[in-house]
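Example record

The entry below shows one chain as it appears in the dataset: sequence first, then structure tokens.
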Amino acid sequence: MNDLIQSPVARNDFQRWLDLGHAPFTIWRGEHAGIVLSRLEKNPSVDYLYRIAATQDNGVSWDNSMLFCGVYDMKNRTLYLTPDALRILMQGRFPPVAEAGPSMADEINSRVNRQVEDLLGGGWNSPPRYVLDGLPEAAFLAYIQDPENFVRTEAELHIKNHAQASAKSFGMEGMC
């Protein structure tokens, strides 16, 4: 996964489904069903959302594959969507999602880099930049469940790894 985008919900019926719904949620485009959303529990406080395109008769077909489209954090009532799902859910007269929020990869990178700078306290002229490579599932889940701990742990590991790499490049491996 490259990224997820925090997305505020615009419609009450969609929010109710996210909070309480278990049956599929159909998004209509006029008189025709556009897509059908389903959810699967990842853990007790997180559901994964999947979408499937509706057929001509407003149903679903075994010829259509379900596509991952996002994550709903029930504890914090926060929705995260893939960029393509966000585009789809922002369409129409009454879209379920009205705007795009922050990129989660960018937010995590920014928060970890601030923490690195805070931990180093200006001790390095140019602190090593933390860059999350894509958005790994385990990292994202750890972040939404405990953002402060995740940021602190990632910053500490990043500083340690950078110090070890610097020591190796200068032939000082045993000093870190």
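Notes for this example: The mean pLDDT is 84. The first strand starts at residue 5 and ends at 6.
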